[in-house]
Amino acid sequence: MKLIIDILGNDNGPQEVVHGLIDSMENSRSNFVIVGPKDIAEKVIEERNADKSRFEFIDTSEYISNEDDPAGSIRRKKNSSIVLALNELNNNGDGFLTSGSTGALVAGGLFITKRIGKVQRAPLLTYIPNQKSGFTALVDSGAVIDTKASMLDEFATMGSVAVEKTFGIKNPKVYLLNIGVEAAKGDTRSKEAYDLLKNNKNINFQGNIEARDFLSGKADVIVTDGFAGNVMLKTAEGTAKMLFSEIKDALMSSGKSKIAGLMLKGQLKSLAEKYDYNKAGSACLLGVNKALFKAHGNSDRVAIEHAIYSAENFINSNIIEEIKEKLND
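Now predict its structure.
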């Protein structure tokens, strides 16, 4: 497997991305095409004494930032890391991973790798750890802000295929995010989407779900637009971070609580690891002809390592071909 890796645009710098690649090499059989400053990448590889035969390089210092116009930059910045990486992917690659601009990834997916035949929009799927020790797929988590009911119907099919092929869950339970569980709840688009999902023969639609059940494990797939999905995702991340911080402060507040903390150390560590987004892997852009993956902008080397594992799992699961079959039949 050949993975194309954009090392620019990460909040922690390109070195951190290269460290993550090297950390993954013990468990990964992939070879990597590193797109970014070659001298920086080679220095880290040399320092870590990594197997140089597993790396190729496309040297550039230009990238598309979060402040740049994504579509315009894809057309103008021909030597940016994401444009060079996606062109290389089309020519000779199995998947592409970036922790840079989400907008640039989506625009590049549409203009360079292209959408699958009848797909209207390409959503991001993000796997979120849930209470039942599994994962819930959120589609869309930030790519498509303005949606039609028919787009949400497509999101549901693509998300269902991804979950079934990735985790081996037969007929994964699909829910539509709404302000209530009743079929008549929500705005006009939500009601139209409900009717489409109910009659979608490719999915196991279970009805509406409220945001408070997001982490419960009730749903295998939750379908929504990118605006609501991104807000829900970041609210969950912020809430988890705040709660763990509050628990830590409470356990350090007195001698008795510190003793209690020592007694619960193992359980608390397991709980923190369960909801650690760094180990959740990468989000994937569905509905395009190539496997495209997005890691968090502030991903450290642990997050990059696990993003590579999830990318390999996605590619090996033949998800893109299955989506083509479902949506073009």
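The radius of gyration is 20 Å.
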